[in-house]
Amino acid sequence: GWPMQQKEGKKKQSVPSAKPAASGAPAKTSGKVAKGDTKWLKTVLESGTTPDKIAAMTLLVQKDPKGQIDDDGHLPTLLNLAKRKDRRIALLATRNVKDLFISMLPTDRELNSSDDYEDVLKKRYTEFVQAITAQANDTVTHFKMASVHTLFDLALNKAEQRVGIITTLANKLGDPDRRVGGLVVTLLGKLVVRRPALKAKVVEEVERVIFRPRISTRAQYYGVIFLNQLVLKKDRD
Questions:
Q1: How many whole angstroms separate alpha carbon 178 and alpha carbon 70?
Q2: Which residue, 136, 194, 124, is CA-closest to 167?
């Protein structure tokens, strides 16, 4: 996991794990939260370190998703932290927000804008995807690669905005850093293996990149590598 012990003043609160359950249901929180120990949470939110505040806010969103997605809720605050210039904090917030959305979003359908709750959730998710897309264009390689991994996890697990995320991933084949392009090849390969129904769309987006006017040689190179891997796998099958 990400480091949770940055010194920010003398006070340090102990915060339980805030990672949501993979099943889609909110994770079981600690006894303190389960018993509604608002005083404990208030102390963390007021005087804890930034990582501890992120963990506490994540727990509160898990406990009451519908009550925490509006402007005065903690999800918007977590989204703002995911946009911080401090990359360590941004990555930590991003990881937690990603897990929250994976637990909150329906798996095999997009959100319904005619439903008030889902409409707000859709707007928050759009904001999150935009933030991760911006991160993927950062100048620091490990930060870009972490963002690409996040986009992959979202495309793999949720239908919401999946097509747009696949397009973003395909565009990263031409990233100036060859390590990013290589990672995208690997992740798109995993995506079509684990989600075979997405193969045609992924191929379409990669081909769109390859044949785009004035596209970089690097993008074409990694795009061809990806398509060749699909052909070789088909031949082996």
A1: 40
A2: 136
Nearest-angstrom CA–CA distance, 53 and 131? 20
pLDDT at 10: 41
User: 132 in helix, strand or coil?
Assistant: helix
| CA–CA gap between residue 12 and residue 18 (Å, rounded) | 17
Tell me if the pTM is above 0.85: no
Task: Name the nearest CA neighbour of 47 among 88, 10, 17.
Answer: 10
- Token readout for 2 is 């990400």
Rounded Cα distance between 196 and 179, Å, is 25
Q: Which two tokens stand for residue 155?
A: 């495309």
What element of type H or E holds 32? helix 31-34
The 10s digit of each residue's pLDDT in 37-91 is 678 888 899 988 999 999 999 999 999 999 999 999 999 999 999 999 999 999 9
Q: What is the DSSP string of 151-212?
A: HHHHHHH--TTHHHHHHHHHHGGG-SSHHHHHHHHHHHHHHHHH-GGGHHHHHHHHHHHHTS
Q: Tell me: the pLDDT tens digits for 84-132?
A: 999 999 999 999 999 999 999 999 999 999 999 999 999 999 999 999 9
CB burial class (10 A; 0-12, 13-18, 19+) of residue 85? exposed
Contact 172, 136 (CB under 8 A): yes
CB 171 within 8 A of CB 222: no
